[in-house]
Amino acid sequence: MTHFDTALSQHVQRTDTGRLRHLITLDGLTRNEITALLDLAQFYVRKPHELPARDQSLAGHTVANLFFEPSTRTRVSFELAAQRLGAYVVNLDMQTSSRVKGETVLDTLYTLQAMHADVLVMRDAEPGLPAQVAPFVASHVSILNAGEAHVSHPTQGLLDALTIRQHKPDFNNLSILIVGDLMHSRVARSTWRALNTLGIGEVRIAGPEHLLPPAHEFKGAIRHTDINKAIQDVDVVMALRIQKERMQQAHIPDDSGYCREFGLTPERMKLAKPDAIVMHPAPMNRGVEITDDVADGKQSVIQQQVTNGVAVRMAVLATIARGAHGQ
Amino acid sequence: MTHFDTALSQHVQRTDTGRLRHLITLDGLTRNEITALLDLAQFYVRKPHELPARDQSLAGHTVANLFFEPSTRTRVSFELAAQRLGAYVVNLDMQTSSRVKGETVLDTLYTLQAMHADVLVMRDAEPGLPAQVAPFVASHVSILNAGEAHVSHPTQGLLDALTIRQHKPDFNNLSILIVGDLMHSRVARSTWRALNTLGIGEVRIAGPEHLLPPAHEFKGAIRHTDINKAIQDVDVVMALRIQKERMQQAHIPDDSGYCREFGLTPERMKLAKPDAIVMHPAPMNRGVEITDDVADGKQSVIQQQVTNGVAVRMAVLATIARGAHGQ
Amino acid sequence: MTHFDTALSQHVQRTDTGRLRHLITLDGLTRNEITALLDLAQFYVRKPHELPARDQSLAGHTVANLFFEPSTRTRVSFELAAQRLGAYVVNLDMQTSSRVKGETVLDTLYTLQAMHADVLVMRDAEPGLPAQVAPFVASHVSILNAGEAHVSHPTQGLLDALTIRQHKPDFNNLSILIVGDLMHSRVARSTWRALNTLGIGEVRIAGPEHLLPPAHEFKGAIRHTDINKAIQDVDVVMALRIQKERMQQAHIPDDSGYCREFGLTPERMKLAKPDAIVMHPAPMNRGVEITDDVADGKQSVIQQQVTNGVAVRMAVLATIARGAHGQ
Q1: ipTM, 2 decimals?
Q2: What is the pTM of this model?
């Protein structure tokens, strides 16, 4: 896996006057910009038993979900965020779509913008598409990256930052551990970027040696291959999803082997601070990177991450739609 | 096929104070409760050429359709019912969803409730899921069973009862025949339960001997293997869908063989009361369990069942959403 | 390929009093009727950077998209048109739907109309279905043909006519060339019909000899097999999509061979009038029937066709819904 340069993404996601018009990467966003997005998201957060926030910020606007890589969970989160802002929403399953007819992706986007779509939410298993197409869409259109290969998942980074801020607002004095397959994780990259920009005290990363990222990434993070050392006295523990094929790559025999070496277990959690919170981007492999006790325990904020996810997507949709329309 | 105990379903679908919060089975519902649901559904019924009833009972609420077993017809019925009550609606095709990523069903439900979904409409080819998950969802969430294996299909039972009531309100003096593969029919079980609770005069069941239900089910119903005897002077005839593999199981050679032995034909209908109505849960196998003449004839109320289906689903959605929110 | 008679379609798409209730074919529509549809569509056209037109013409109405042949692009166009008129919209993927359960198409339509669907948008790879089912649906229901085999695609014909009218309103003095696989093209047939009824000056058709339509079709059109002659001094050039299997049928070796013989290239465009416009129904095979320079050049109105497509569909939906309800 080679390093993917996000310099292009940073550049193309702004208008000439510097406004955020697309959201492709969190790289290059200022602390003020991220804070403003989190503040707006917080405004949209409701308690679980309450009705969700809703307004008409996007009334008359159209949001199109283009998922080249399927993800029901993420698609529904974006779909509800858009609906609750009063937008029209259409879903395009790009795996069975006109790509079979040989149409280029850009022509699909041109078609959608000609139908007055304002925000194109894109998810792809390959890197590069959002930044490649952003310069070509019409000026009223925003590209919103909903997950791009191992590279970027900006709304996930924001929702993780928001969740941590709700529990541990004093970022300067926080220590967070991200554990698992960091090399292939768009979540880890975007979350690390958000926390770094917000001035987090300390980031530690831990995982099998073969699955740690290249040395030039996650600068300043402290690297561990022994989670029992890495987890000492941290305030936040975030487990990443591990895939079977990656375990083989890291010479780990099976699920229980991974759990033994890197899983979040109740015993291990005792090494972190007593009030540490536990996070996971989901979907979880229960019994692999996290045990049931921890996933469903008092320290878990995993469901809260999901709630924050819709709120963050509402905030981002409202913000970039304004940016594209020059407001 | 073993008997599936619905005692658990009855228990878990109520709050501690006895309000109906989920709808998993019609077992255990009182006559008053069923009547109240039918009355509300009747309030939502419109003539076919009129615009459908609509209000804002579920404004701000979110309904998620989770279909583990595909059924376009039923999904659309629930989708329109929810839309016409002003709800946000999302569809999840659970066959291609994150189950492929190994996520547990419960985690999917936790995710949806964290996104402020209020009603989870579930359909599954296996028995047990709704009652298993109901105790675990948050207190603002309702599980609505949209068809569960051979066990339960409560909104179908209600729409059948409503349809009969519209034509034959004097339930005490009614005689109904349900004919076909009762053993595997969730429709027959739920309809029988609804009619029984409402005090129907007489239920007869008829079908190939191998496809009649176990003796302890459909208590009080009169069993027949000769439809020509069973249909004598009944007020209501309901044909069930038969599947090829079930015919083989019952030693019936082919479609026309089934039609000859158990199909609703014009000749057979003459044995019922002259004003008898004909019902079918659809989709129909025309020329198998019912002939075109009967399906499209004057006595058929099959399209009316469909119209009532949307009205019943509106009534149930509104009722259980109130139940979950303690109103 | 045999000629498909649209006389039945013309007949069944009107009420007894002659109002347009379904839209199955443009054959038989008067100049006034087509002009009225284009005028209403023009009322719904907005500039690309503006919010789309929207009103509540179909508030309370229900539009169902039934796609027997998949087409994400066309489905989204109809879906947005219906949403922007305030309708409830449901999508049915008929390839994976209850046809697997052996239900007849007509029973599916009966079900949808019983659920108070008002407009059934149908697309099918086979000819005949819309006209076959139209006489059987209830009087409040309209069938809207969204593409039928090689036979008819009426909203495409209208959007092409609207696009031409916006640039070249003096139809009497216009010359248009349609180039490509006309034999299998529903687009060409519907567009030709619309232009003919509106009194276009001259229609030329060009393509490989094996892919020109039978002699009794496109009456009055001038036939060419040499595009370089055909394109001389025309005002409008419309390229059609070509499929690999058709190229073989026409003894054309490959993509570049087709482009050389029939593709719209910058050189060829110089033979048309200097202000000629270029059209394509999309999705395009870039480098085959049209080169990038032409598709994205100043003369191209291809994206404008897409914008007009939504507007035309809004106009047709509003018009036939009124026709079905006797207004």
Answers
A1: 0.95
A2: 0.96
